[in-house]
Amino acid sequence: MIVRPKVDAYAEAYSTGEPPWLTALAEETRKVCAVPQMMVGPMEGRFLAMLVYMLRPRRVLEIGTFTGYSALSMAAQLPPDAHLVTCEIDPVHAEIARRHIAASPWADRVEVREGPALSQLASIEGPLDFVFLDADKTGYSAYYDGVLPLLAERGVIAADNVLQFGGVANPLDQNEDTVALRAFNEKVRDDPRVEQVVLTVREGITLIRRV
Ligand SMILES: C[S@@+](CC[C@H](N)C(=O)[O-])C[C@H]1O[C@@H](n2cnc3c(N)ncnc32)[C@H](O)[C@@H]1O
Question: What is the whole-number distance in angstroms between the Cα of residue 19 and the centre of ligand 1?
Fold first, then answer.
């Protein structure tokens, strides 16, 4: 997180709590996955749910399912006729996500597609009303290029982890993901087709829309 832990804890305490079905998913993820902190967690989960509530999207695409925490956070706020496709490369992650989605009340609205997200993009139908980018950071630039032409006129892309806990602002941080995200942030900033705002929520989230 970028904000001080005490302030972050305060913000979480005064936000609506995590629903029980996500607590069960999070508990299993912490038990069986090597990097459970890949889940967006309660605060960002509530934030995504609020965005979906406000946007009322019909078609949602997520790139980077992991065990389904963000997908189910969003699904709970989808209108009944909406559809969320979420892409995941790892079969173990996809299996956990599918099981929790099947047990949820939103199984009819959420589809997990297994395999590299970039090759899935060819079969994704637009227009997309909301896109959540949260897979491999070195792939963001290609995902952005792939989804922008599919974005609805009033569609929004949310790109996660764009500040890497602040690493992007530290020139000494030459980690591969940080370098890729710096390049991604520059690309979005310099793209005349879009307007964007970089938020300091958790590891940083950029909201992008077409102009
Ligand atoms: C940060 S996690 C996603 C977290 C998830 N949004 C959540 O809140 O639980 C990133 C996920 O992207 C997946 N991934 C990595 N490279 C991918 C690719 N090329 N195509 C699809 N998924 C990929 C990883 O296996 C991992 O499960």
Answer: 22
pLDDT in tens, 84-108: 999 999 999 999 999 999 999 999 9
Mean per-residue pLDDT, 202-207: 96
β-pair type (83-88, 59-63):
parallel
Q: Residue 136 Cα, ligand 1 centroid: separation in angstroms?
A: 6
Q: Which domain covers residue 57, as residue numbers?
A: 5-210
Sign of CA pseudo-dihedral 191, 158, 31, 8: positive
pLDDT digits (tens, 9 = 90+) for 193-204: 999 999 999 999
Ligand 1 center–CA 66 separation, angstroms:
5
Report the CATH number at residue 130. Answer: 3.40.50.150
The token pair at 199 is: 């938020």
Atom of ligand 1 nearest to the CA of 90: 25
Nearest CA to ligand 1 atom 25: 90
